[in-house]
Amino acid sequence: MTGESGIAAAESTRTAALSTALTGLSARIESACRAAGRDPAGVRLLPVTKFFPASDVEILYGLGRREFGESREQEAAAKVSALGHLSRVRWHMIGRLQRNKAKSVARWAYAVHSVDSERLAGALDTGVGAARAAGHRDSPLRVLLQVSLDGDVSRGGVLPDDLPRLAERVAAADNLRLAGLMAIPPLDADPEPEFARLAELHARLRDTHPEATELSAGMSADLEAAIRHGSTCVRVGTALMGARPITSG
Ligand SMILES: *Cc1c(COP(=O)(O)O)cnc(C)c1O
């Protein structure tokens, strides 16, 4: 097959693969919820589309998905702009974010899961304020605070001790809404105790900020453990999209 029919065939193969993977993931999430005695409606699947082309997002959109996670600002901004014709899409920035990218992210993100410093929160607040004034968006930005579970802040995340102060900073910002917490377990760690600790931090945060209901936890390999410990949003890349191409970055 060549030309347009070849492209159409490739696209329908990809659609079938993504559709099958979505069905499998929904079943996985449902059975994890059942095992944990939770209502599956309380756990959202956030497809992570980083490293995959805009055409994949379009296919997922056609399969009914409206929320997507991206982790690199430049790649995300390009996809958002290429997919401007899709209505009601909510883009989640889930990766590490440098302050100098806050202004751009403020224009396209529905939520940021990786806020880990007051300086970054301040930059996002300012950026969203500017984006609202310019008519690029009308709603505040939903913010999840990323917690460092192993204390190695070079991998991102705020230390648990610094969480209350950062939460206050976000809650007080005009253009931000404190939505909850996010964490990634340390590499090679048993995720179970890590997610248990995260759940404790989340409960403590909700004592002072009851609006912070979201817990973004769990990825392809550990979503069952995260769901056992209260995850409301699992961020899934590999188990949905397939293996990411190997890159140096
Ligand atoms: C890439 C990424 C994911 C998805 O990871 P998989 O193991 O491929 O499911 C989740 N969260 C963050 C922050 C990521 O960068």
The helix tally amounts to 9
CATH class designation: Alpha Beta
Bound molecules: pyridoxal-5'-phosphate
The radius of gyration is: 18 Å
End-to-end span in angstroms?
35 Å
Strand content: 5-15%
Helix content: 40-55%
Major sheet characteristics: 6 strands, parallel
Task: Give helix and strand order, one letter per element, not per position.
Answer: HEHEHEHEHEHEHEHEH
The chain-level structural class is alpha/beta
Q: Enter the CATH topology name.
A: TIM Barrel
> Total number of β-strand segments?
8
Shape: globular
How many domains, in number, for the residues?
1
- Overall residue-averaged pLDDT value: 95
Task: Describe the structure using short key phrases.
249 residues; alpha/beta; TIM Barrel; binds pyridoxal-5'-phosphate
Structure description:
The protein has 249 residues and is an alpha/beta fold. It has a single domain (3-241), classed as TIM Barrel, CATH 3.20.20.10. The protein has 9 helices and 8 strands. The strands form 2 sheets. Strands 2-3-4-5-6-7 form a 6-stranded parallel beta sheet. Strand 2 (67-70), helix 3 and strand 3 (90-93) form a beta-alpha-beta unit. Helix 4 (102-108) crosses helix 5 (118-133) and helix 5 runs parallel beside helix 6 (163-171). The longest helix has 34 residues, at 3-36. The radius of gyration is 18 Å and the shape is globular. The chain binds pyridoxal-5'-phosphate. Pyridoxal-5'-phosphate (PLP) binds next to strand 8 and helix 9.
